[in-house]
Amino acid sequence: MSRAWTNEAVRLIEADFNRSADTHLIPVPLIGAPGISLYLKDESTHPTGSLKHRLARSLFLHALCSGWIGPQTTIVEASSGSTAVSEAYFARMLGLPFVAVMPRSTTAEKVAQIERYGGRCHFVDSPCAVYEQAEQLAQEIGGHYMDQFTFAERATDWRGNNNIAESIFAQLAQEEHPIPSWIVVGAGTGGTSATIGRYIRYRRLSVRLCLADPEASVFHRHLEDRSICRVDGPSSLIEGIGRARCEPSFLPDLIDLSYAISDVASIAAAHVLTKIIGRSCGGSTGTNLWAAAQIISAMKTSGETGSVVTLLCDSGQRYQSTHFNKAWLTAHGIDLAGAVDTMERFFKTGIFDDRSAFSPTL
Ligand SMILES: Cc1ncc(COP(=O)(O)O)c(C=O)c1O
Q1: Backbone torsions φ then ψ of 28, nearest 5 degrees
Q2: Do 134 and 197 fall into the same domain?
Q3: 91 with 230, same domain?
Q4: Given CB 3.0 to 4.6 Å as the disulfide criterion, which of 76, 148, 310, 314 pairs with 50?
Q5: Ligand 1 atom, smallest distance to 191 CA
Q6: CA 188 – ligand 1 centroid, Å
Q7: What is the pTM assigned to this prediction?
Q8: What b-and-e string marks burial along 185-195, b requiring 16 or more CB atoms within 10 Å of the CB?
């Protein structure tokens, strides 16, 4: 592999980072829970619109510095969409062809974005088929299968280097409760939860990590019973989080608590939050909020004060044809009214009283 080309590729990625600002940590008003602060790390403001921008940058640097990518390498990735958008951006920056292997159900907005960056989309019928198809395609064309599901946990520098955890703690430094009681995240590859979980141990912080997981996902089941590593059945409607297989980058021992959350609850929470903060939020942000609300409610009930941090993973603009589309919701038999009510009541009272809510599984 030409070292000159690799040097230049690394410089281009570092220069992009140098031009970019950090993402905001937004306080969310919680009238009903005085003494408790809720913050959203707004990852939708990255140049490619989601927290996957961090991952894509790390994966490219890791692959470049491992000598796996050269000037003629086609990059192939298995994705539910967000990672592919971000990788298409970096592939174009380096002048490399990019192919995303994705489920056919991926939103039109994400497909358009990948193609805008010059990427090609290869669709598969079953979300479980993406790994094998991507690997096979890379072999056939002599490309490089990036494999975010294997490499997410090791491509990111979990000790620091402005990873998402270090950034959150730096931004909390002047707050009333600078060390949060809880951080709530979803898992797709598991990379984000791995980075945060390792960082809080490395820094010897008392923060606990909560996983907000779609009902259809295997992760929360695996946390209860380590022998469960796969689930069958329809996958979640929340893109980016929840998987049918336990991904290699998901590190279960770093999770202190998990909630299984229905798609209806996630979408309803995304709708309510979008109105309250005036920023558009995607479905997985709703999943995070549904879990955070239960934690905050329990803190309030026990008289505990402190802060809770969760992620605004991507914008609802990416889901205008699905989660924010009345016809789509009706076609999927989704009625948001009850869950919207629960979430609105939570914001007024600080108490989460949804009867259908799952209890903590840890
Ligand atoms: C859209 C989206 N993609 C992916 C993820 C999960 O990230 P990771 O792959 O690091 O587990 C999230 C997490 O919250 C998300 O909202």
Answers
A1: -105, 125
A2: no
A3: no
A4: 314
A5: 10
A6: 5
A7: 0.95
A8: bbbbbbbbbbb
Beta bridge partners of 245: 230
Closest by CA to 58, choosing from 141, 154, 144, 139, is: 154
pLDDT in tens, 136-176: 999 999 999 999 999 999 999 999 988 999 999 999 999 99
* 312 close to 281: Cβ distance less than 8 angstroms: yes
CATH code of the domain in which 46 resides:
3.40.50.1100
The residues that bridge with 28 in the sheet, in sequence order, are: 38
Residue ranges lining ligand 1, Cβ < 6 Å: 50-52, 82, 152, 185-192, 240-241, 284, 311, 313-314
Residue 185: both structure tokens together: 């995240």
pLDDT for 66-102, tens place per residue? 999 999 999 999 998 899 999 999 999 999 999 999 9
Domain membership of residue 324 as a residue range? 3-51+156-349
